[in-house]
Design brief:
The protein is mainly alpha-helical. 72% of the residues lie in helices and 5% in strands.
Length: 109
């Protein structure tokens, strides 16, 4: 199962999980969540951004236009969607229903 499918399953689970489980999941990930959502407090990360900006501003580094970034994001989303569809199709081919006699009555040929 790819990361996109796992992410979807986790989101679906979190939507219906009881409060106790939600709190437990949050407590496990709290430090990481705070670290990722408050990037401006990460001095090493901010220093790296400043360094990269200075290189770009001096003309020595490569920058990307909004159109280039948008095209790359669109391309990656399309690839991820195709991968998810392939995973789902593969999963459907391997699932089947076994009758009481042990024979496959619905599933792959």
């Amino acid at each position: 199962m790819n990361a996109g499918a796992i992410r979807d399953k986790l989101c679906d689970y979190i939507r219906v999980a009881d409060d106790k489980k939600i709190k437990a999941i949050y407590m496990m990930l709290e430090d990481e969540i705070d670290e990722e959502t408050e990037w401006w407090k990460n001095t090493a990360f901010f220093a790296e951004l400043e360094k990269e900006y200075a290189v770009w501003e001096s003309g020595k580094g490569k920058g990307y236009s909004f159109a280039e970034v948008k095209a790359e994001i669109t391309s990656r989303k399309a690839k991820n969607m195709a991968d998810d569809l392939q995973d789902r199709a593969s999963s459907q081919r391997t699932k089947g229903t076994v009758g009481s006699t042990g024979t496959m009555i619905d599933g792959p040929d």
